[in-house]
Amino acid sequence: MRLTWRVHRISGLRWGEATRIEAGTLHIEREALTADLLQDQRLSGVDLQLVAGGESCRILPVFDIVEPRAKIEPAGADFPGVLTPVRAVGMGATRVLRGMAVEILDPSPPPNRVPILDLTATPLDGWSAAEQCRYASLQHLVVVPRLQAGLDVNERCQALRLANLRAATFLARNIDAEPDEEQSFELTAVDESLRRVAYVYQMHSHQRPTVPGEGLLYGDNCRHLLPTIVHPNEVIDGAVLRAYDGLAIQTYGIQNHAVILDLYRRHGHDLNFAGVVVNVANQLPEERDRATVMTGNLVKYALKADGAVFSKSGGGAPHVDMALAAARCEELGVKTSMLAWDLTSSDDGLQGATLFSSPLLNAIVSVGSNNVDLPMPPVERVIAPTPDMAERYQGQIVVQALRGVGMMDQLGSSRFTATFY
Amino acid sequence: MTRVVLYLNQFFGQIGGEDMAGVPPRFTSEVLGPGRALAGLLAEGEELAGTIICGDNYFSDQPEKAAAECLGHVRLAAPDIFLAGPAFNAGRYGVACGALCKCVLAELGVPAVTAMFEENPGVDLFHREVLILHTGQNAATMRETLARMLRLARKLRAGEPLGKPRDESYFPRGYVVGELAEKPAAERAVDMLLAKLAGQPFETEVPLPAFDPPQAPEPLKDMAHAKVALVTDGGLVPAGNPDGIEVSAATKFAAYSVVGLERLEPANYDVSHGGYDNRYVKQDPHRLVPLDVARELEREGRIGQVYDQFLTTTGLSNPVNNSRRLGRGMAEHLKAAGVDAVILTST
Amino acid sequence: MTPVAEMVGSHRIVQGNGIVQPLGSAESSPEEEHRLRRRIMERALDALSTPVDKPTVFRPS
Prior knowledge:
The complex is a heterotrimer. Chain A is α/β, with parallel strands linked by helices. Chain A has ten helices and 23 strands. In chain A, a hairpin with a 2-residue loop joins strand 3 and strand 4. By secondary structure, chain B is α/β, with parallel strands linked by helices. Chain B is built from eleven helices and 13 strands. In chain B, helix 1 crosses helix 6 and helix 3 crosses helix 4. Chain B is elongated and about 80 Å long. Chain C is built from two helices and two strands, in the order H-E-H-E. Chain C is mainly alpha-helical. Classes of the chains: A alpha/beta, B alpha/beta, C mainly alpha. Chains in contact: A-B, A-C, B-C. The interface between A and C is small, with 11 and 10 residues. Strand 23 of chain A pairs antiparallel with strand 7 of chain B, so a sheet runs across the interface.
């Protein structure tokens, strides 16, 4: 199963008469895009904004971020099960517009949960904005939606998500230019002596259960997903989406999944990328036990892994699901490492670190801590659903690390880490 | 001249052993005990300006008084740097060193450093406020420890930032600093795994906590006469959350009366907990605090009495130390009320 | 989350019915839910009167 990305490098955005790329600048046909989005009658209106990388600009509340892509082969198989009908993806060719992203804002986020994307803030001393935030130097198309009154929260979220996917796909669909580069992904046969390494991808935590229609895997909401194997190409080619409120994860980060891309990079050199097991963090104890058992079996006996990397989703409780699955793998002789965060506030980093303790779980990487407050100085421009909100967030603000979009990433793309002093 | 002042207990201060642990604080300009090793480590422009000695029992019996008296001596010695111990695994000594360093920092604003073994109770009590270096269990490493203490104290005095606890061998102070690592987390996780697979050394970034469980209480012998309390960390509160129990990392608990109540009416309650979907408990609070069944058991004589109040707090994202404090507070409250057993419900 | 309770050293741990409703079952009828709650509480009483020397999970029958 071989997937090829045909990558176009975008260094600028502007409105134009037709959607096309010219010398690295993407021209966007504003009316056509607007009309495309308003096909969904749950949107009563939409405002589109362009932001240049590194502009003194703050974008909030960010619902999600998507990289513009379009399936070329099979044509039109974009985000199967969600945006388009279910079809196999992860093979063939996909057009990628790299160097830009499409955000959609949430007009009514839950209180105290305002994810903020700031393109110039450098809350950590000594590093540039681009080093601290993966989106800082990208070009941005921001969709500011107005939703019909009377929608329930599920309809609202679905409308927002679809608009985001639709906009991203629109930009890439009709591009006619030759790509700047190609990148291919295939689990080729490699030297037998290389260690087999699997990735266990906890896609979602049902502390906040998914609702009908909130597709995560080929459109299935995975409410009672039993651990299963997917091809890594499927993850990065649109088969997997985040939940509506996926914490410190954006769809962009799944499309460019840091763990998967790193394992691919090393495939045939340092290791043999054995494959991906997907699971969810569960609510009920027997579901958790079942997931533990089945994840262990898949990693050990189906993927025949020598080692496995684990990541998690959601908040604090899913650390336990991840730890139980990893401990089970260790019991079966599979070595593990994990991406985790410090989830307790205030003073005692020594003890607050994790919810679990087993001597076998001794290889844990920190993806950061919510206990770090990120101060951000005033900006020139704020893109928000209302002028009121824009004004409120224009000056000096302090953002909790989890809400600093692009700074903490549970999938491991960020260098942000928490050190206990 | 940089004036270095040292604190020693009665043993290291050459006064005597346990029999002399009650001696009050005194100052000496004599260079004795570890002071000799320390004097040998001082650089050009540094001098050992004096040593304060106090008996371990004198300090532990009346810590505030002893600290104040010692501080008086320290103040007179006008230190630029204050070193206490090292205390190794001597518990009373470690606690005294920590307490005194804390005072010196607060009252004199002078760099104060101590050192002790990880199991010394002084660590748990003072590591947040005081720079405490790791040591082994006994004085075999005295000289090397003093050298490390001196080096870090000099850094503090020069206003230089300290390195990571791991690198400089001190107990983490307990605050989190955001930083950027060399590589993204995904790469670091794969690196760490490859090292583990190859049997090469690696170091976890997230330390695993150690828990020291208490002894299991004896089982209830007389259930039929027992006073049983309902407690929860799921954040059930009266409507409007009158005592402001925080939605995460609660800093307090509260007690609410169930006197005369057979049931908890949903309309009268709310949930202040951001870590789980609250709707089911809001619909029926008994899904979290089972007063209905508790009353049945009371009526049937299975238990003696449901305690007058239910206790509540929010466990979400709560640091272990804070949770311990809350638990202790709840336990004291319940013990004072003659409660025999607790049923604690947790989300 | 019984694994957490075991790990921190709680001695008497009774398995509830999940994170969002430890003593509830919104999917069941009120009678069934009440019976479930009763079973869990009975187990809690059992646990309180059972000697234990290490973290022990009691599962409702």
